[in-house]
């Protein structure tokens, strides 16, 4: 049985996305993720199912630049 919620390192390994990218996607609401309230180190947890949905959406996207990519590009300029 696979875990639903993954720590940052597990999510990076699972998705092949970087930790920074995962956090950015969570902050803009593209995937589900949040800081772990039980520690002070700033660890995050990410929802595996929302990562799967994001990756599937990216693979199925007909447009060369997805709305998520556009949003991340705008945020990176702030």
Overall description:
With 78 residues, the chain is an alpha+beta fold. It has helices at residues 8-15, 19-27, 48-60, 67-77, and strands at residues 5-7, 33-35, 44-47. Strands 1-3-2 form a 3-stranded antiparallel β-sheet. Strand 2 (33-35) and strand 3 (44-47) form a beta hairpin. The chain is globular.
Summarize the structure.
It contains 4 helices and 3 strands. It is α+β, with helices and mostly antiparallel strands and 78 residues long.
Topology:
Blueprint: E1 5-7, H1 8-15, H2 19-27, E2 33-35, E3 44-47, H3 48-60, H4 67-77
Antiparallel strand pairs: 1-3, 2-3
Key descriptive features of the protein:
78 residues, alpha+beta, three-stranded antiparallel β-sheet, 4 helices, 3 strands
